[in-house]
Amino acid sequence: MSEKKIAIFGGTFDPPHLGHLILAEQIKNNFGLAEIIFMPAGSPPHKKDKKISSAQVRYEMLKLAVKDNPSFLLSDWEIKAKGYSYTAKTLSQFVPQIKAEKVFFIIGADSLANIFEWEKADFLLSEGKFIVFNRPGYNFKEILAKKRYQAYQQNIFTYHGLNIEISSSYIRNEFKKGNSIRYLTLSQIEKYIKKNNLYR
Ligand SMILES: Nc1ncnc2c1ncn2[C@@H]1O[C@H](COP(=O)(O)OP(=O)(O)OP(=O)(O)O)[C@@H](O)[C@H]1O
Ligand SMILES: O=C(O)c1ccc[n+]([C@@H]2O[C@H](COP(=O)([O-])O)[C@@H](O)[C@H]2O)c1
């Protein structure tokens, strides 16, 4: 029997966009993952001073995002956990509960570039496995050539798929300006944003 591989895709998801879905699907295909667990951060540690939508709202949007893909699951674990959503906590407390031979974290190249600012980064990179998707403006080779990354190369799996320029901040800004956000996210999420009067 082949080993079951799954990944956790953590993020703020304010809002979830097509980039998140495209990269998750591409990674699922290319790494032979059985499932991807989308994990909205309850309290994102690096967005302490930023105005973000409530965890409940971000969770509901993500529910709409994953509902048509049976391989995309959703977890409220980081939302229910107390305090900041440190990935080190998710690795030590949530990952051991998962029934799979291999568990990866999915991040974008921008997150990889900042990972040494994360809580317990050395623990994360030595005990966790990261699948990293390219992001415009970030170069895998340049990031990984830095000395601090050298010891952890065996736990960092890069995947170069499509270059996707979409970001949640772009969507929020466009929407705020009164511009259409059609085709940047799913239509049901666009409807949700309008109905709940987000980002105005
Ligand atoms: N277009 C993209 N290409 C590659 N990685 C992405 C892309 N969008 C998001 N990610 C990755 O997905 C994870 C969650 O991202 P997040 O929910 O913060 O979206 P974002 O578009 O980066 O948001 P914001 O613009 O508000 O910073 C992060 O690890 C981020 O690097
Ligand atoms: O653990 C940390 O210190 C830490 C710092 C910044 C980001 N993260 C996690 O990285 C993921 C992407 O974060 P973000 O802010 O780009 O949406 C999300 O799961 C965050 O909880 C984690």
UniProtKB/TrEMBL annotation:
Residues 8-173 form the Cytidyltransferase-like domain. The keyword Lipid metabolism does not apply. GO terms for molecular function: ATP binding; nicotinate-nucleotide adenylyltransferase activity. Gene3D superfamilies: HUPs. GO terms for biological process: NAD+ biosynthetic process. It catalyses: nicotinate beta-D-ribonucleotide + ATP + H(+) = deamido-NAD(+) + diphosphate. Pathway: Cofactor biosynthesis; NAD(+) biosynthesis; deamido-NAD(+) from nicotinate D-ribonucleotide: step 1/1. Transmembrane segments: none annotated. Pfam families: CTP_transf_like (PF01467). It comes from the Bacteria. Its EC number is 2.7.7.18. Keywords: ATP-binding, NAD, Nucleotide-binding, Nucleotidyltransferase, Pyridine nucleotide biosynthesis, Transferase. Catalyzes the reversible adenylation of nicotinate mononucleotide (NaMN) to nicotinic acid adenine dinucleotide (NaAD). Belongs to the NadD family. This is Probable nicotinate-nucleotide adenylyltransferase. The lineage of its organism: Bacteria, Bacillati, Bacillota, Clostridia, Halanaerobiales. The gene is nadD.
